[in-house]
Write a structure and sequence with these properties.
single chain; alpha+beta; 6-stranded mixed beta sheet; 4-stranded antiparallel beta sheet
Length: about 280
């Protein structure tokens, strides 16, 4: 049996959702049937439709504990090509504090409660029992991986796992709660010239917002640029018909802030995108 497959089945038996990673420590790309969200959305993705794809092509949302799926022919082919095993921490009610260098490790030892640790190539993973929102770059060299994220499995580690402390939860809080909502100044304009919304079903808009959240969530680098380009794409499609609501905008802002953006950066990106499109 393939070594990665064996590890995946062992983790799944402990109710830890797993997925294969290809070279470069990244998930497998979408298959043809799921490209451009043709499948209706990733499984387990909030506000997106179900996907019946049998392949591990939906990043963290493909993670599963089902041995029949993990052993399926499609997944078997993926395990042969895989370079590592990953898991969805939030799905196992875990949070991983990813410390990317020695300075970050030193900071954690001085400021965080001791817990189970796993050595990585450049630093350590500190694993806590509990779930929270994921966030990148909460401090120099520190990322938090829990819900809607994946982490490489690097072994059982050492030490006893502690409960997720408030000091870790606080790292993901970038702004006061009221600042996380889209302010009135960035609300999308009503339809130009009283034009009717050209989207014939609410599902069209819902799918567009879900796809935008997905693009932001899956961004691994260049977050500022990715957020701006995603906002630009949403506004170019939905910005002139008046169908966007503050709730839709708040969802996009929340996805961006989960990747480490501040409320101010979100507001600036939204405003710049509107200016570019002449809205």
């Amino acid at each position: 049996m393939n070594e990665h497959l064996r590890t995946a089945l062992e983790l799944a038996s402990c109710q830890i959702p797993v997925l294969p990673l290809r070279a470069g420590k990244v998930p497998f790309g979408n298959c043809r049937r799921c490209a451009d969200n043709a499948c209706g959305g990733r499984p387990n993705m909030k506000n997106a439709g179900p996907c019946a794809c049998p392949g591990p092509c939906h990043a963290w949302a493909a993670a599963t504990t089902d041995p029949d799926v993990i052993n399926s022919d499609v997944w078997q082919r993926a395990w042969v090509r895989a370079s590592a095993v990953a898991y969805h921490p939030g799905g196992a009610w875990l949070t991983v504090v990813d410390l990317d260098n020695t300075d970050a490790v030193t900071w954690a030892r001085e400021n965080l409660p001791a817990t189970q640790t796993v050595s990585t190539t450049r630093g350590e993973h500190w694993i806590y029992l509990g779930q929270m929102q994921s966030a990148n770059a909460v401090r120099p060299g520190v990322d938090i991986k829990s819900t809607m994220a994946y982490a490489r499995y690097l072994g059982p580690g050492t030490g006893r796992m502690a409960e997720l402390p408030d000091v870790v939860r606080a790292l993901a809080v970038k702004e006061p709660p009221t600042a996380r909502l889209a302010p009135p100044s960035v609300t999308a304009p009503a339809g130009v010239g009283g034009a009717e919304c050209r989207h014939r079903t609410p599902a069209y808009l819902e799918r567009g917002i879900a796809m935008a959240e997905q693009r932001i969530t899956e961004t691994s680098s260049g977050v500022h640029r990715a957020v701006y380009r995603t906002f630009l794409a949403v506004l170019s499609t939905h910005g002139r018909c008046g169908c966007l609501t503050e709730d839709h905008i708040a969802r996009l802002f929340t996805a961006a802030q989960a990747k480490g953006e501040t409320a101010r950066h979100c507001t600036d990106a939204w405003t710049n995108a509107r200016t570019t499109l002449g809205l």
